[in-house]
Amino acid sequence: MEKKKPRLLSGDTPTGRLHLGHWVGSVENRVLMQEDYDCYFLIANVQAFTTRMEKPAEVHQNVMDLMMDYLAVGIDPARSTLFLQSDIAAIAELTIFFSMLVSYPRVMRNPTIKDEIRDKGLGDNYPFGFLLYPVNQAADILAFRSEIIPVGEDQIPHLELTREVARRFNQLYCHVDTHTDDADYVKKGGLFPIPAHKLGRSRRLVGIGSPAPDGNLLKMSKSLNNAIFLSDDPDAIKKKVMAMYTDPNRLKATDPGKVENNPLWIFHETFNPDKAWVAQAEERYREGTIGDVECKRQLIDVLVNLIEPIRTRRLQLEQDPHYVISVLKEGTARANEEANHTLILAKEAMRQRYF
Ligand code: TRP
Questions:
Q1: What is the pLDDT of residues 26-37, one digit of tens each?
Q2: 12 lines ligand 1 (CB under 6 A)
Q3: How many whole angstroms separate alpha carbon 16 and alpha carbon 8?
Q4: Architecture of the domain made up of 7-200+321-349
Q5: Helix or strand or coil: residue 81?
C-alpha cells in the first residue's frame, strides 16, 4: 500500500492580489510540495475581519482574488484542498477551547501582533478578536492535525504559539508526559502532532521603493505600494522595474555602483536563473562598466517569464467565477469532514462528549 503522505497546511489572509514577496516567501514552496504532501490551503477570511470588519465587500473581492491567484500559480484542486475559514465551524469551536490554554500576557508577547499594531496604526483601539487571531490560527492548523506549515518569516511567532497549544492540549487531555520530544507526541498518545514551519528560499523580499528613513529597505507589501504582483502585465512590470530604486549615488553607467542592499541585485539574485550572468554583471556594476538600464531590461525579461504564464491563466479564471467558486465549495466540504472528525476526537479527549 502507498504510504500516507504527511499533512501540510498553509494559507493567507485575503488582502488583495498575491505578489512576488508571497511567491518566494511561501507560495512557491506550496506549489512544489503538492507532490509529496497531503495539502490543505485556507483562505483566512475570518482573520481579514479582525482589522477590516468595516469592509465586507472588499474582503469578498479579496477572497475571489486569492482563489484565482492560488489556481493561477498552480495549486491543483485535484491534489490539494482549497477551503474557506469562515465555513469550518470546527475551527471556531476549537478556537474557544484553545483560548483557555493561552494566557493573556502570552498573547501580548507576540512580536507579529506588536508589529501589526504599529504598522496598521491600530493604536489601542483594536478589537478583542484581533488579539484572538493567533489562537484562531492555531485552530486552523490543529483542526487538520497538520505537520508542516510553509509560511513567511512573520508567521513564526504564530507557529510557536500553535506548538505551545498543541503540547499543552496533548499533556492536559491526552496525558502525554511534559518531557516528550515534539516528534513523539502522537506516538505517546497525543491527538495533535507538533507542527513545524518551513520558510521559503527568500525570507523577506524587499519592495521596489526607496528605503525607510533609517536606511533599511522595506519589505514588499501591497500597503506600502512597492509590490510587483503575480497578475501584473508586462507593461506594468516594465514600468515598475524601470522606476525601481537602485544605488542613489550612481548617476551614470560609468560610476562605480553598490550591489549590496540594492533591490536591482536582490531581485536578480532571487529570480534570475542565469547565475553566471548575474555574477558577471554585478562585477561590472561595481566597476562602472554596465548601465542600470541594461540590468533592468534583463530583470524585466526574467520577471515577465515568471509572471506571464500565471497572469494568462488568471485571465481565464476571471472569465469563469462559477468554476472558482465550485472549487472552493468542494474543498470546503472536504475540509469540514476532516475538521469535524478532529473536533470529535478533541471533545472526547476533553471528556466533553456525552452523547
Ligand atoms: N496569518 C496568515 C497571514 O496573514 C494566514 C493564516 C491564517 C495562516 N491561518 C493560517 C497561515 C494557518 C498558515 C497556517 O497570511
A1: 999 999 999 999
A2: yes
A3: 24
A4: 3-Layer(aba) Sandwich (3.40)
A5: strand
